[in-house]
From TrEMBL:
It comes from Tribonema minus. This is Nucleophile aminohydrolase. GO terms for molecular function: hydrolase activity. Gene3D superfamilies: Glutamine Phosphoribosylpyrophosphate, subunit 1, domain 1. PROSITE patterns: PROTEASOME_BETA_2. One of its GO terms (cellular component) is cytoplasm.
Amino acid sequence: MSILSYNGGDIIAMTGKGCVGIASDTRLGNQAQTVACDFQKIFRMTDRIMLGLTGLATDVQTLQQLLTFKINMYKLREERDMKPKTFSALLSTTLYERRFGPYFTEPVVAGLDEDGKPFLSAMDLIGAPVFTDDFVVAGTSTENLYGMCETLYRPDMNEEELFETLSQALLASVDRDALSGWGGVVHIIGPNGVTTKQLKCRQD
């Protein structure tokens, strides 16, 4: 088994019209054994940037704390919030610094630019980034997530439609994966702030 799938978990991010959404399951596992059903995998870095981390749970928490420190230092020094593209570059270099003893995580960055344009990026454990205009996925059931996203995604969705699409794609995918599921959470970043909703799914 890959160390990236040891604790299980899935993340999906998707763009809409003037908004962006990111969703994850809430399971923390020890391979096939479920340890907790409320493990946080999506973190609010600024008012307009959300970070999703899937992979080894200890590295998820370590990397999130390190990035929170770096983004706070940036705000103190620059006296402004970091842009999503800048944060993605910071995350990429942070991972590449540790390439010989990497953090076993697969990050997903979702955010809104100052002009309200959605931003999505994802990277591997040594920080090689990919940028997209529609959706990105990470975790143990990426094949299922890609299939559902390609089926359900359409451009220029509003916030409600984006929430519904993310929810259906996540729930349908984790139902077919033994290492993820047991609940979900969806965050929608819009011009008026962040909306968070919890999802219930199968508990088996």
